[in-house]
Amino acid sequence: MDKTVRRYYQLKKKQKEIEQELAELRGQIIAYCEEQGQTELNVGSYRVRLVAQDRREYDDRKLYDALNDTEAWRLVSRADPAKLAGVVKMNVITEETLSGTYTTKKITLLQVDRS
What we know:
This protein is α+β, with helices and mostly antiparallel strands. The protein has a domain at about 55-115. Helices cover about 55% and strands about 25% of the residues. It contains five helices and three strands. A three-stranded antiparallel beta sheet has the order 1-2-3. The chain is flat and about 55 Å long. The model has no long low-confidence stretch (mean pLDDT about 90).
């Protein structure tokens, strides 16, 4: 068991280092594309794409106040955008009910594929 725990620790440490390096490289690639004014770019045998996306960040308190229904709140239980989208899709609540309970944050997704 000692070897298993040690290996797990080593891999988690390596994972953290890899995620940090990926974040740095992602930032450099996005910055370069933005400087070039490009959302798609071919670099050697790789195709780089930037995809802009709006994400909702809900405020739990505002959401709870807006729902005015403990049954609806139990379905959601916290401000989870995926759950909320599902509840809206099922017509349990409306988009209008959610108005004012979130802020919209623009994010950039990075996709890199081999050409």
